[in-house]
Amino acid sequence: MTTASAFLPFTRPTIDEETIAAVGEVLRSGWITTGPKNAAFEALLSEYFGGRPVRTFNSGTCTMEIGLRIAGVKPGDEVITTPISWPATANVIIEVGATPVFADIDPVTRNIDLDKLEAAITPRTRAIIPVFLSGLPVDMDRLYAIADKHKLRVIEDAAQALGSTWKGKRIGSFGDLVSFSFQVNKNITTGEGGCLVLNNLEEARLAEKYRLQGVTRSGVDGIDVDVLGGKYNMSDILAVIGLGQMKHVEAVTAKRAELARHYFDCFGPDFEARTGAQLPLQAFDTSNFHLFQIILPDRGPGTRADFMTRMQKEHNIGTGYHYAPIHLFTLYRERGFKEGMFPISEKIGRLTVTLPMFNSMTKDEVERVVAAVNAILTAEAPAQ
Question: Which among 145, 229, 342, 379 could disulfide-bond with 213, CB atoms 3.0 to 4.6 Å apart, if both were Cys?
Fold first, then answer.
């Protein structure tokens, strides 16, 4: 029976009135492309990441591509990443002419298995793109020990990890090249956009060239182009949204932890034994809980589709899944990947479900989601 409760989406952005007004001011200013608000946003992000240079872009995809170019990755090189991510993580490797190499994931963290990552390294390996799924970092000490041992660059796909930490240090405040996304469902959003945290001003200047057609500005003497760049700059319209959002970053991170803790408390310690489903790690010391995902019990073909349909039709609750295994997409099958190559990724990619989690969500809504999940997973048979 369908509930009378209002529809509960799995994500919803929160933009305050002050930020909405600030967007209007930018529109009235006459300077709506990359300008002073973007410079202010970059400065604020740099401060947040401990003074490291930061450059903004119009997506969290081009940030990784430019990171690879800055790292010197070129045709003939290999880059290792995980099959469980948005396609962009692997697509950018192909964009720069390199070869994507996948390593299976750890079944508990759902991040790349660092043992398998190290085993995948060859003489052609030039870089690693680890993904911090749902905001949970990999073991950063071990990751960089592997990278240092094999002289590899690291482009961290921290798209979901703004506010996450490792041993008390913010992700992005250390490491090599670190890519963040501000897409609409992220904890902090600019609608679309991203940023790249860099190691030094030389890399920052190169990033500026790559984001604007490779142009070097020379004042009245005109311009020059010495690298092949694209059109990836962030407008002041997006930047001013980011400035408003960053005022709330600490509160947002704390709120997500509070909601996640309530999810765990409501599901209870016997949830996995009762239902056969798997909860995420209770990683309150590191994760920003960008997503709250469960792994469903395997009840055969259609398991996830049935669950997601029932959540919406019977309980008026939206869900999602993140992500389908990249290596099984047509583009990658054509490159020789197939079923059975990364079995853990394939199983989790088939059974993972993302439950509602957003900044304005309430504890009552968490309880509503938990009740619906329990009702479906403990039912004797699927609804007809």
Answer: 229
| Residue matched to tokens 């590191």 | 286
Out of 74, 149, 186, 231, the active site residue is 186
What's the one-letter identity of residue 30? G
| Residue extents of the structural domains in the chain | 17-246, 249-377
Pick from 350, 361, 188, 104: nearest CA to 258 = 361
Cβ-contact 93, 216 below 8 angstroms: no
- pTM above the 0.90 mark? yes
Question: How far is 279 from 265, CA to CA, in rounded Å?
Answer: 12
Output phi, psi for 262, to 5 deg.
Answer: -70, -40
What the block records as the tokens of 171 is 């992700």
Answer positive or negative: Cα dihedral of 255, 42, 154, 176. negative
The domain defined by 249-377 carries CATH number 3.40.50.720: no
Pairing outcome for strands 215-217 and 223-225: antiparallel
Q: pLDDT digits over 69-123, tens only?
A: 999 999 999 999 999 999 999 999 999 999 999 999 999 999 999 999 999 999 9
Query: What burial letters (b/e) apply to 122-136, b meaning 16+ CB within 10 Å?
Result: eeebbbbbbbbbbbb
pLDDT digits (tens, 9 = 90+) for 290-334: 999 999 999 999 999 999 999 999 999 999 999 999 999 999 999
CA distance 114 to 129: 12
Q: How many Cβ atoms are within 10 Å of 84's Cβ, its own excluded?
A: 27
In sequence order, what DSSP letters do the residues of 64-97 get, joined into one string? HHHHHHHTT--TT-EEEE-SSS-THHHHHHHHTT
Distance in Å from the first CA to the final CA of the chain: 11
| Distances from the Cα of 295 to the Cα of 237, 270, 318, 377, angstroms | 38, 15, 16, 12
- Cα(234)–Cα(32) distance, integer angstroms: 10
Annotation marks residue 167 as catalytic: no
Coil, strand or helix at 113: coil
DSSP alpha helices (H): ranges in the chain?
A: 17-29, 36-48, 62-70, 88-95, 114-119, 140-150, 201-211, 236-246, 249-267, 271-275, 303-315, 330-333, 343-351, 363-377
| d(C-alpha 379, C-alpha 383), whole Å | 9
Q: What is the CATH number of domain 17-246?
A: 3.40.640.10
